[in-house]
């Protein structure tokens, strides 16, 4: 065993899964790929080494799950980097995990689950490549797997932006499923939620639906601050400034109110004086 495998063998496999989720949430695609490759190495080590029984005792799920998850997340990161051919190779690997040679009922559950993910993700790649003819099939698959609607909507909007087609129908069909972000309190889901609202703002801006674009931007500004996501907070501020000439008076008022509330909270948390008294004396 080389030094790298020795080091990897000391990492609890589920800790690595959580590290991948966090890297994905922060959109660190290269890190997702690196960690996913490490997870694959540990899964192989667990399955084929003399330490299999010891490692298996410390795993929360069967080894087939970790093989599937490593290829799934690597494929998703490659997709985000627009390395679509390499992403398809990963999808093919987890579309049929019978090669892991686990046959009990729990393992079959994960094998079947990854097969479903593969079907959806192959369609995802078709959409990202601009194949609009696959949109009806894609929407049908998403409706059958509601957990995939949020990333699926991201795919549709991304493709519409890149390939310049109208996706109003598909957006109308999917947007109702994402109305309540409290359903997505996991890091990856939070990242999906902020991403899809930012992309919807861009989509409406591109199609000159300025009021809709601004409303999505204001929503993302509020939620990104509440969730402590600086990346999307900055993106939302920048996008609102770009859209500002198209904003109504109420929208500008809401924007100012959001920023003033944030400023007030930051100052009052860090300093010993009352912001209201300073504003009052300056007016």
Mean pLDDT: 85
Order of helices and strands: HHHHHHHHHHHHHHH
Shape: globular
User: Cα-atom Rg, whole angstroms?
Assistant: 22 Å
- Assign the structural class, choosing from mainly alpha, mainly beta, alpha/beta, alpha+beta, or little secondary structure: mainly alpha
The number of helical segments is 15
Span of the ends, CA to CA: 72 Å
Describe the fold and architecture:
The protein is mainly alpha-helical and 283 residues long. Helix content is 75%, strand content 0%. It is globular, with a radius of gyration of 22 Å. The termini are far apart. Mean pLDDT is 85; it is low at 50-55.
List keywords for this structure.
single chain; about 280 residues; 3 domains; globular; DNA-binding protein
TL;DR of this structure?
This is DNA-binding protein. With 283 residues, the chain is mainly α.
Question: What order do the helices and strands come in, and which of them pair?
Answer:
Layout lengths: L2 H7 L3 H13 L3 H20 L3 H6 L5 H18 L3 H12 L9 H24 L6 H10 L4 H15 L4 H7 L12 H20 L3 H17 L3 H14 L5 H22 L4 H8 L1
């Amino acid at each position: 065993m080389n030094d790298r495998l020795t080091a990897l063998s000391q990492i609890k496999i589920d800790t690595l899964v959580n590290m991948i989720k966090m890297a994905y949430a922060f959109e660190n695609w290269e890190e997702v790929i690196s960690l996913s490759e490490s997870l694959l190495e540990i899964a192989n080590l667990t399955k084929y080494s003399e330490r299999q029984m010891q490692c298996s005792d410390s795993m929360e799920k069967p080894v087939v799950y970790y093989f599937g998850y490593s290829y799934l997340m690597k494929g998703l990161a490659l997709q985000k980097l627009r390395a679509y051919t390499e992403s398809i190779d990963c999808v093919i690997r987890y579309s049929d995990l019978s090669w892991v040679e686990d046959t009990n009922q729990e393992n079959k559950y994960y094998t079947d689950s990854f097969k479903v993910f593969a079907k959806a993700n192959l369609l995802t790649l078709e959409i990202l490549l601009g194949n609009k003819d696959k949109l009806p099939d894609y929407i049908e698959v998403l409706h059958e797997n509601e957990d995939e609607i949020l990333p699926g909507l991201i795919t549709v909007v991304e493709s519409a932006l890149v390939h310049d087609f109208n996706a109003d129908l598909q957006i109308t069909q999917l947007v109702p499923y994402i109305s309540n972000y409290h359903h997505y309190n996991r890091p990856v889901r939070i990242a999906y939620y902020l991403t899809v609202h930012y992309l919807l703002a861009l989509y409406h801006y591109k199609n000159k639906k300025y009021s809709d674009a601004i409303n999505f931007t204001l929503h993302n500004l509020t939620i990104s601050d509440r969730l402590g996501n600086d990346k999307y907070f900055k993106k939302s501020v920048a996008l609102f400034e770009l859209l500002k000439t198209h904003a109504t008076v109420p929208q500008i008022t809401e924007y100012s109110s959001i920023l003033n509330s944030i400023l007030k909270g930051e100052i009052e948390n860090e300093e010993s004086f009352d912001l209201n008294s300073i504003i009052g004396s300056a007016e």
